Amino acid sequence: MTLDWSGVVTAEETKVRNLVKRTGSNWAREVLREMISALLGTKIGMTRIHGEKGVVQTVTVVQAGPCTVLQTRTGERDGYDAVQLGFVDVKPHRSTKPAIGHAAKAGTGPKRHLREVRLDAPADVSQGDVLTVEMFENEVTYVDVTGTTKGHGFAGVMARHGFGGQQATHGVERKHRSGGSIGGHSNIGLGRGIKKGKKMAGHWGHARRTQQNLKLLGIDREQNLLLIAGSIPGPAGSVVFVCKAKKAG
């Protein structure tokens, strides 16, 4: 039985997936080998391109890969299927002996960034393979990008949550940017503490975020570049994780 990976999940694929989850059948796993469409990359910055009809489109440039497959996990041996990717070479004297030995099994040097990608079935790659942006050329139209947002340190309610602040006059004295009353007795019945999630001053940014369903507008195979529509989390130079969109095609 041959499965069609070029379009929407077929009825045969659904049957095999359910069979794998229910019985863990080895032959079903061999039939349902999963294609990896995920890479670690570096956010270069933003620019503009002209579309087919001359419409200007804002894009983010990501230098994705090359990533080395450091390890593969299987359901029979590890209890789940996954692939571990390594990105950016690091000098051995700046690494550790366990990391050097782990990378040596894949025939490569230690890596600065590692990421494990969970799969629903055994992957079609082996330990030591090098993945590039070419994997996004055929079937991938939309991608999900995960990164760490820009950190702004400790911020007040006006910068962090967009509060309007207090009045500039009429008796307000040295409290113009204050958040005001926090309602200490508002959570009646559960004690006198304020409600969880109250918008207050605190640390702003530097949080893990995922931007979903971003259109992939272009690929540069020579320089390992991806042109992704819109903005993605994180400052220029930060490491991001790009994978095939889970919700879009």
Separate helix tally: 5
User: How much β-strand is present in the residues?
Assistant: 35-45%
CATH architecture of the domain at 35-65 and 132-152 and 201-249: Beta Barrel
Q: Segments where pLDDT lies below 50 for 5+ residues?
A: 1-12, 26-32
Instruction: Return Rg in Å.
Output: 24 Å
State the end-to-end CA separation. Answer: 24 Å
What is the 3D form?
A: extended
User: What is the helix/strand order?
Assistant: HHEEEHEHEEEEHEEEE
Brief characterization of the structure:
With 249 residues, the chain is an alpha+beta fold. It is 14% helix and 36% strand.
Describe the structure.
The protein is of the alpha+beta class and 249 residues long. Among the domains are: 35-65 and 132-152 and 201-249, Elongation Factor Tu (Ef-tu), domain 3; 67-130, Double Stranded RNA Binding Domain (2-Layer Sandwich), CATH 3.30.160.810. The chain is built from 5 helices and 12 strands. The protein has helices at 11-23, 26-31, 75-78, 97-104, 157-161; strands at 38-50, 56-64, 67-73, 81-89, 111-119, 130-131, 142-148, 151-155, 202-205, 208-220, 225-229, 239-244. The protein has a 6-stranded antiparallel barrel with strand order 1-2-11-10-7-12. It is extended and about 70 Å long. The two termini are 24 Å apart. Residues 1-12 and 26-32 have low confidence and may be disordered.
Write the layout of secondary structure elements.
Layout: H1 11-23, H2 26-31, E1 38-50, E2 56-64, E3 67-73, H3 75-78, E4 81-89, H4 97-104, E5 111-119, E6 130-131, E7 142-148, E8 151-155, H5 157-161, E9 202-205, E10 208-220, E11 225-229, E12 239-244
Antiparallel strand pairs: 1-2, 1-12, 2-11, 3-4, 3-6, 4-5, 7-10, 7-12, 8-9, 10-11
